[in-house]
Amino acid sequence: MITVLNTIDTGHEDMIHDAELDYYGLKLATCSSDNSVKIYDIKNGTQTLAADLKGHFGPVWQVAWAHPKYGNLLASCSYDRKVIIWKESGEWTKLYEYTGHESSVNSVAWAPAEYGLILACCSSDGSISIIQYSQDTGNWDVKKITGAHAIGVNSISWCPALSADLNLDPLTNKDAPKRLVTGGCDNLIKIWREQGDQWVEENRLELHIDWVRDVAWAPSLGLQRSMIASCSQDKRVVIWSSDDNVSWTPTILNTFDDVVWSVSWSLTGNILAVSGGDNKVSLWRESTDGQWLCISEVAKGLGQTPNDERSTL
Amino acid sequence: MNITTFSNNNVRGDDSSPIIRAKTFNIPEKCFNKGVGCAWRSGNKFSIYPRSQTVSKTPKNDVENKILNIRHEIVLFHPILRKLVNESNGTYLSLQKLVDSSKNNDNHVELLKLSRQYRSIIRVCIENLQEALNDAKDGSDMINLQSYITIFYSVECIWHLCEILYIDKIPGDIVLPYLLEWVRFHFPCHEQTAAQLLEACERGSEDHDDYWDTVIGMVVQGRVDVARALLKLNSLSETNEFKLVDNSLRSMPVYSIYGGISTGEFTVTWKHWQAECRAKVTSRVLASQPKLELIMRLIIGEYSAFESIRSTYTSWFDMLGGYVMFTAPWSRTHELSAAASACAGMGSMPSGSRLDRTLRALLEGDMHQVIHEIQHITDNGWFATHLSDILYHCGKLKVLDKHQNNVTQRLRDSLILEYGTLIMEHKSLWSVGLSYLASCPPEGLCRAHLLLERIPINTHAKAMRVVAEANKYGLLEVGEGVWRVLSGRHSAAGRDGAALSAAVRGGAAGRAGRCAGAALRHYCRTGCLPAPDLLLTAGPALLIDDTLLFLGKYCEFHRMYKNKEFRKAAQLLISLITSKIAPDFFWETLLLDALPLLESDEAMFTADDTYDMMLCLELRAQNFNREKAELLRLALLRNLARTALAEKPEESTQ
């Protein structure tokens, strides 16, 4: 049985492109084609608009919350080629603006908090920037990976810190290299590894036959396994898994009726939410024998329709 | 927009696995027609928002964009059921402890006790629900409560049978007495009527509407004595027919494992008895009393007799006890499946309820199917988790997947992890959920780490609890993270002392250093040192950062000065100066602190100390206030003069 907890009227004047809840589930940030980012406080089923952040000059594609130990920080990226990091100290203000890309910035992702305050962003100019805050100098240092994907990079996701060391001795945990996964318009998924001062391409995963729209690295569960979910305009969702972060095996989760726009893992990494152009959100889980199925349930739902009818209003 | 939650569409299915169709939920909001995205909250909550990947050329204002927060409804969070969750948690933890502490011993007595504890918790829950139902006013509340009660009755019924078949160690494995007890307890059809009739003790009781049903019911439940007593109340009880039946019932052999005879001997005696009864039936001597004939046919285990009364009962298990008693009373626990199939197959009543299927599977020993069915009885894993856990520890849970791999442990672990994750959602029950996750390492602890980080720590008390729980299970990083968040919040609010102490407790070196710097600046302005108690007692915790260490020592210096331990204070001051860990802005204050000690009557500083101080002063002279620098130089020179003289007594003075 599902219930709708509450409904938030967003007040965005145009399409919403992303909505993310903060770590504690108490704040919601949304961003839209109307160039603004809105932040809501959610408490007990009601929401109040906490801030309306204007600073972009084009549709804002994605927002991402940083770990609360760095304070209340939100990153947003937009068609106007900028990445803005907003901070709340009493009020929400712009902390830093990054303009190092030559084209729309499509996705931003904060690194696991264990690595420090690091933001990765990827753009339609085919390059990836990794911006790191240095406590000593108070500056943001930038590293760029150019020519990551031809035509453009659509999505970026970090490897969780606990997963990074699958083959290493737990004592050397801290030395495990940082890893990123990106999906691009060249139909490829690439895994990048930090080596010394540089980022190198560690792996190239090929299976999709159209633009890769979203990639998501599953949260670590302390098992000897890493998983990445990817979805593409070729209507398929693929799960890539690896025992050593070096060689990857793909499993096609499903072929949908329409383009799949996004995949996201639940907090504990056991359920994958897939949403796409066929106007549906579906939830998937891996069964004990490695197959991807949905959890079955027999319960009354909200506005439930009989199985074969699906009416849209 | 639709949320399709469960589908197995892509499994082309062996014949054994059922294809489960999708459950689709329609969300009737227009704004979702354009497209939909999903953002996760915690495990059973997520937000749905209308998402579009394309840029629209003209803004459309026609539909309001809405975001829905959706939650998978969990019955367990109902206030009455929370007690169930809490109490069963206690039993669960006792079970784990028991298993851990006595690896090789036979625990079955203890396990049985714990199983009974679980059952009594369920029964208390049913009672509470019943009370609430009696008090309920709202129609939908009443419906819900009634359905919960029905569910938990089934749960307890299944658990009880499970306990008999798998957890309890029945002497000789002869299960009939226990089975009869189970049937009588859970399906007490005619008990009340029988009791009434016996109490009334009237001759001519057959006039009562339910008389014969009751008598037959007692026979079918194996209560032969009660049946006899009821028959004696019949006005015709002195007739031959009645005496015949009474005789047969009285002479029925009853097996007892302590009776001294073997099962073989018992079987012979019993079969002999049945043959005699059968003879009576075939001789048609009871033809005038069809009810009595029916009773005789039942006690010889005639299938058609049972079938004929099937329709008077709602379910086949009502008759199970009697059927076993009159066909194979020596049955062992694992030999019941034939009787179960026989009873279930009787009549044309559809027996498709989940309870039916679960009990069948249980009697057939198909534990995988049992767990599968149980998972559908409640919408949460409470039942499946706790039952499979106790069966696992009894060694009775053996589950093979379709590749014949033993997945028992994985099944049990996955149920516990899911249940733990679910319970952690709740704002008061999260520590209960945590205990489940912690009992399933390593994945459980990782999940615990991920989920604990996300618990909102709005009040100090809550934060303390989270830290305590995190530390209890060795998740030190989470505890440290909480302290850092608190420290940040205090700093933002201007509470430097609190920020500092939180940073120190969290072991956050950088943050602690910054807080210490802020504290020193504060001191320069106001002359107050924050959090002196913490700093004086923190001990080695101060070593994480130089500035912090400096602050701590400086506090110490002040304390010594106040206690008039001037010499010690002086020594400390010198070590602070020479160690050079003071932040730049603080040198002036630090050196000026030496002034009163330099001027004091006794020399506190040696000549070497004085040289060191002079060097420091000269190196930093340009940052100092001129007058103060002059004063300091003078004091240093004077001290140098007297100490130089004092320390070299053998040199002759001028």
From TrEMBL, chain A:
Entries under Pfam families matching the protein: WD40
Primary localization: other
Signal peptide range in chain numbering: none
PANTHER family reported for this sequence: NUCLEAR PORE COMPLEX PROTEIN SEC13 / SEH1 FAMILY MEMBER, PROTEIN SEC13 HOMOLOG
Keyword Ribonucleoprotein: no
Organism annotation: Bombyx mori
Family stated for the protein in its record: Belongs to the WD repeat SEC13 family.
Per-repeat ranges for WD: 9-50, 53-87, 205-241, 253-284
UniProt gene name: 101741617
Superkingdom classification of source: Eukaryota
UniProt-listed SUPFAM superfamilies: WD40 repeat-like (SSF50978)
Keyword tags: Lysosome, mRNA transport, Nuclear pore complex, Nucleus, Protein transport, Repeat, Translocation, Transport, WD repeat
GO MF term set: structural molecule activity
Subcellular location per the Swiss-Prot or TrEMBL entry: Lysosome; Nucleus, Nuclear pore complex
Protein's name in the database: Protein SEC13 homolog
Biological processes per GO annotation: COPII-coated vesicle budding; mRNA transport; positive regulation of TOR signaling; protein exit from endoplasmic reticulum; protein import into nucleus
Entry keyword annotation includes Repeat: yes
GO cellular component: COPII vesicle coat; lysosome; nuclear pore outer ring
TrEMBL record, chain B:
Pfam families from the UniProt entry: Nucleopor_Nup85
One GO BP: positive regulation of DNA-templated transcription
Record keyword Membrane present: yes
Stretches that traverse the bilayer: none
Top-level lineage group: Eukaryota
Main subcellular localisation: nucleus
UniProt KW keywords: Membrane, mRNA transport, Nuclear pore complex, Nucleus, Protein transport, Translocation, Transport
UniProt-listed InterPro entries: Nucleoporin_Nup85 (IPR011502)
GO CC terms of this entry: nuclear membrane; nuclear pore outer ring
Molecular-function GO terms, alphabetical: structural constituent of nuclear pore
Subunit structure comment from the entry: Component of the nuclear pore complex (NPC).
Function of the protein: Functions as a component of the nuclear pore complex (NPC).
Similarity remark: Belongs to the nucleoporin Nup85 family.
Protein name, as recorded: Nuclear pore complex protein Nup85
Species per Swiss-Prot/TrEMBL record: Bombyx mori (Silk moth)
